[in-house]
Amino acid sequence: MKPGYKQTDVGVIPEEWSVATIKEHTVIKTGKRNTQDRVEDGQYPFFVRSQTIERINSYSFDGEAVLTAGDGVGTGKVFHYINGRFDYHQRVYRVSDFSPQLSGQFFHLVFSTKFYDRIMSMTAKSSVDSVRLDMIAEMPIPLPPLREQRAIAEALSDVDGLLGGLDRLIAKKRDLKQAAMQQLLTGQTRLPGFHGEWEVKRFGEGVALYSGHHVLAQHCNTQSEGVPYITGPADFPEGRIRHTKFTTRPSTICSPGDILVTVKGSGSGTIVLERTSRFRSGPVFSSPQRGRLLQPRAGAPTL
């Protein structure tokens, strides 16, 4: 261990940092609203169990807070930071009333980074159905001096601003791509050197369809051991696969170029294409029980 550092419940940290549980420096509550209480163009933010922030004409809290989903597909993956008036769902946890020793923005960074691993370590299944209050309250977090907390939060906020600008540029490029796809995939525009009539074939002539299979919790991990295990649409936000869970006992194996389609739950019909080049020489990921894998048939024309 490097000089000036120490081993703690949250790992190796500088000696001047301390460790505390969340309940020691915050207040944790759940809301009283239901999703149907949302109001289009409402006056205040309304936090439900997803990344989407709804609107409502009432507020139950006014201040700085971090919110996370208490159940549903966003469990351990949905986090919001706010400082102002808002309302929130009855299955959303509000962490607020930060002590003078804890920066709310710093807490948001730590909590959103570490909470998923914590809840996965507390369940025997491959996913978490719901979050208990003690899962949050008893979670240990590092506590640098307040001045350092604020400096860390500010530095990472600057990075977020840069990434936000890149995201807007990407969105603009994506819109251009969608327009080009509409023209090219319908034959309204032809690429130079191509002419003649198109053929029409049944979809099944070009692909093979496979169902995913459930992987037991004891064969799953979050330490990148084995191959990535995709469990649902929350693992591929905005059409890009995010690897958060892995398995050493894969069942249905996917490869670069394969297509995943979810068939159950709120994300039914969500589609993603895996392009990860670092897995070109072997399996890419294990597909979920609630998904379907579309794989090109041998000898079939490229789709």
What does this structure look like?
This protein has 303 residues and is α+β, with helices and mostly antiparallel strands. The protein folds into 2 domains: 5-144, DNA methylase specificity domains (Adenine-n6-DNA-methyltransferase TaqI, Chain A, domain 2, Alpha-Beta Complex); 207-296, Alpha-Beta Complex (Adenine-n6-DNA-methyltransferase TaqI, Chain A, domain 2). The chain is 21% helix and 26% strand. The strands form 6 sheets. It has a 6-stranded mixed beta sheet. The chain has a 4-stranded antiparallel beta sheet with strand order 11-19-16-17, with no helix packed on it. A hairpin with a 5-residue loop joins strand 5 (44-47) and strand 6 (53-56). The radius of gyration is 23 Å and the shape is globular. The model is unreliable at 277-286 (pLDDT under 50).
Number of domains: 2
Largest sheet: 6 strands, mixed
**At the first level of CATH, what is the class of the largest domain?**
Alpha Beta
Strand order of the largest sheet: 4-9-7-8-5-6
Q: Please state the oligomeric state of the protein chains shown.
A: single chain
What is the percentage of strand-forming residues?
A: 25-35%
What is the number of strand segments? 19
**Model regions low in confidence, pLDDT < 50 over at least 5 residues:** 277-286
CATH superfamily of the largest domain: DNA methylase specificity domains
Shape: globular
